[in-house]
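> forwarded from #structure-qc
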């Protein structure tokens, strides 16, 4: 009977030791996992920051590229050195041109063309306007 109790106690002690070792190993794995998770999150944060900065830089370049371009397509009604008139629907569109205007193909009356253009201000007149009035605060 003493032997069985001794063995039982030994088995119990051995089981306790194993449980303690498993718990220590588990804590170690959890710590490593947490460390790698934190490391991954830091790298992800850095990557997302870099992508955000790149996107903002490219959007600023795109907006600084110049004014928006437009297109009109239709048959040519009239061609001069300084202007091209195109029929768009029922409207006559007159687009100014100069020596720097690129022309591809044979530009003549009746030819169907697509003109790419930008809107450019030739004159701006600012008039003194009324000062913006502030609305009085409503009383409750």
């Amino acid at each position: 009977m003493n032997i069985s109790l001794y063995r039982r106690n030994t088995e119990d002690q051995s089981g306790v030791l194993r449980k303690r070792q498993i718990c220590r190993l588990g804590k170690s794995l959890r710590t490593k996992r947490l460390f790698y998770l934190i490391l991954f999150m830091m790298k992800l944060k850095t990557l997302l920051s870099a992508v955000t900065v790149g996107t903002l830089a490219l959007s600023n370049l795109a907006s600084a590229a110049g004014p928006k371009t437009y297109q009109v397509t239709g048959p040519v009604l009239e061609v001069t050195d300084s202007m091209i008139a195109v029929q768009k629907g029922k409207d006559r569109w007159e687009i100014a041109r100069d020596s720097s205007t690129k022309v591809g193909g044979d530009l003549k009356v009746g030819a169907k063309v697509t003109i790419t253009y930008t809107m450019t201000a030739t004159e701006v007149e600012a008039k003194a306007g009324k000062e913006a009035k502030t609305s009085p605060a409503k009383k409750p």
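QC bot note: Strands lie at 69-79, 83-88, 91-96, 112-118. Confidence is low (pLDDT under 50) at residues 1-9.
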